[in-house]
Design goal:
Blueprint lengths: L2 H9 L12 H15 L6 E5 L13 E7 L2 H6 L1 H6 L6 H5 L5 E7 L2 E10 L3 H15 L1 H17 L4 H23 L7
Parallel strand pairs: 2-4
Antiparallel strand pairs: 1-2, 3-4
Helix pairs in contact: 6-7, 6-8, 7-8
Length: 189
């Protein structure tokens, strides 16, 4: 399989969930280090997010990384250096996003990483971290999310956008409720 065929296979990859793999945090740490070393000064911070960041949660075996920059103009400016560092993106898809830029890394016809470039400490940054932290702190909530993910994967096995959209309301509710509960006196994030 040549590089173009591998990329096409990754783009068209089926939605499949796997049991939590304890190697996922190390895969995140290695990619974080690779990005920060290869592209020094581009990011204020980078965080492991998504289901691979939640111990015990089923996930697509794709490491989601949230990378913080100073502005959306800065997010736009890092796309070319990231593509030179092994990521691919869709200009058409990114044009539909006003609050982030999306890139992916792939190998052997499958996605390995998603990189979400957002404004550091902005609304998207805070929402992604609230969602991750809520799932980490509440095993029952993580179990409900796992059930929803399994249902969505069965319903949309060949349509990643539909799969993602089907989870959106749950994610919005969790980030809204977690934000409310952590802003109360004595609550911890």
């Amino acid at each position: 399989m040549n590089e173009q065929q591998s990329l096409r296979a990754a783009i068209d990859e089926e939605v499949r969930l796997f049991p939590h793999d304890p190697s996922w945090p190390a895969a995140y740490a290695a990619e974080r280090q690779r990005l920060l070393s290869a592209l020094p000064g581009l990011f204020i911070d980078a965080q492991h997010v998504g289901s691979t960041a939640v111990p015990g949660l089923v996930a697509k075996p794709i490491i989601d990384i949230l990378a913080g920059v100073t502005s959306m103009a800065a997010a736009e400016s890092v796309i070319a250096p990231l593509c030179a560092a092994g990521y691919a993106t869709s200009a058409e898809y990114n044009a539909t996003l006003s609050d982030r830029k999306w890139l992916m890394r792939w190998a052997d016809g499958r996605r390995t990483h998603h990189l979400h470039v957002v404004v550091h400490e902005g609304p998207v940054w805070r929402e992604w971290l609230r969602f991750r932290d809520a799932l980490r702190a509440q095993p029952a909530l993580a179990a409900r999310y796992a059930e929803l993910k399994a249902d969505c994967a069965r319903e949309h096995p060949r349509d990643r956008e539909a799969y993602t959209h089907a989870k959106a309301e749950f994610i919005r509710a969790v980030t809204k409720n977690h934000c409310r509960s952590t802003s109360e006196p004595g609550a911890s994030p």
